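Entry type: protein chain
Record version: 2
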Amino acid sequence: MKRVVVLADFHCGHVVGLTPPQHNERSERTKASAAVRSVYWDWFAGELKSLGPIDLLIANGDLIDGKGEKSGGTEQLTADREVQAEMAADVIKFCKPRNVTITYGTSYHTGRDEDWEKVVADEVGARKIGSHDYIEIAGLVFDTKHHIGGSQIPHGRYTAIARERLWNQLWAERGDYPKADVIIRSHVHYFAFAGGPGWLGIVTPALQGAGSKYGTRIPSGVVDFGFLSFEVRSREDYQWRVHLLEPKSMSQAAVRI
């Protein structure tokens, strides 16, 4: 059996991004949110330790948050992208995977003129980093890419991942790319999946919590915090599960007037 773990959207450097303990309290301004970051990290660390050894870790993009231009940097734990890349590398090293592959995220977060996730890949000795990759383990083929279209209606969130599967089939019929068994997308910070005979498509949850100005004030919907794990014996014999956290520390009550 081979164990595969899929992580995405760390957004290291954001005040509610995934933050290893040694990076948690970097300034007085962000100490107020340090307890929330600890909740996220402690849950993440506990879930990982319950799994056992990881044969392949897929880090599916947006591993750092970037400069935070849209919020004027007011949401950054640190805007130093070298430090953010160090944080992301520490997350991956904590998992102690035997093999690592990384998918490039969105340029707003990871660098318009440079690829900071390449720095992370070099630091952790990733087997591969790419924009759209096909990875085979124990006969099961994963199709990994970070970006996918989102939807503001709950029932529309399955269309995008089903569309990705159709495109994979069309590319495979032309002989350009492998036919995938499992299609992995991220980016939208909610969990959804669809499938049928011979295929499974999953939109991964994120490892950035709720609380960004952009996410709170503009889109509708929920934020799912978590990751995926697979136990693969063969192409026909595999199990998967989603690990999700619903942190009570982020819940809100109505204001009484």
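Comment: The two ends are 57 Å apart (CA to CA).
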